[in-house]
User: Which sequence fits this backbone?
């Protein structure tokens, strides 16, 4: 399973929030997945959450702002949630949204979705891999990269790809805190830094020679 993005808007980049919010989001995400698993609906409920964050919110930013707004009462939000999702979403997912509303946590839907995805990956022994390349990767390149990553990390890699022409060539691969940078741009910068360091060393050597 691969997910790719050939633009540069960063929509697939990990969601960032303050540490406290991320901790709370993880608690809610785990509670949702556990409740869904008991009903044998884990995949379906996650797809509902994923669709809301990845499809509905980008298509209607005012709806996301409405849910996150502290100026709108819980009662108003609950009416809208029931109107929009009642009979369309699963009862479990609707109840989850209402619980978030009761605790003024609807603004955490994005980090909750991110935390839920990470938990699902962990439970399935999968890992998310962020890949930036100067040009789109061919199918054989994807498979070769996945094979190398699986051999190194002993987990199934899920590629999240993005084209970045600024790299000039090569690719950058990130798994958690581990980063491999094989881009031409970085190689050129490394060579440039080495040349600068060598020139500085030679200048200093000449100074030392003349001053002795």
Assistant:
């Amino acid at each position: 399973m691969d997910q790719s993005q050939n633009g540069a808007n960063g929509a697939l980049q990990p969601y960032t929030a303050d540490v406290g919010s991320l901790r709370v989001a993880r608690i809610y995400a785990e509670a949702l997945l556990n409740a869904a698993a008991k009903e044998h609906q884990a995949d379906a409920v996650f797809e509902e959450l994923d669709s809301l964050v990845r499809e509905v919110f980008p298509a209607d930013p005012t709806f996301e702002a409405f849910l996150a707004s502290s100026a709108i009462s819980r009662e108003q939000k609950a009416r809208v949630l029931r109107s929009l999702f009642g009979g369309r979403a699963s009862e479990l997912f609707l109840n989850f949204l209402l619980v978030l509303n009761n605790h003024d946590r609807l603004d955490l839907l994005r980090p909750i979705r991110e935390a839920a995805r990470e938990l699902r990956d962990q439970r399935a022994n999968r890992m998310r891999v962020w890949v930036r390349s100067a040009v789109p990767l061919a199918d054989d390149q994807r498979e070769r990269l996945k094979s190398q990553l699986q051999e190194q990390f002993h987990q199934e890699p899920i590629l999240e790809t993005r084209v970045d022409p600024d790299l000039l060539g090569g690719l950058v691969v990130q798994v958690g805190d581990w980063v491999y940078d094989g881009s031409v741009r970085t190689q050129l910068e490394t060579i440039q830094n080495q040349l600068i360091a060598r020139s500085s060393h030679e200048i200093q050597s000449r100074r030392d020679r003349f001053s002795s």
Summary: The radius of gyration is 24 Å. Residues 4-15 have pLDDT under 50 and may be disordered. The beta strands are 3-5, 126-133, 156-163, 171-175, 178-181. The longest helix spans residues 184-211.
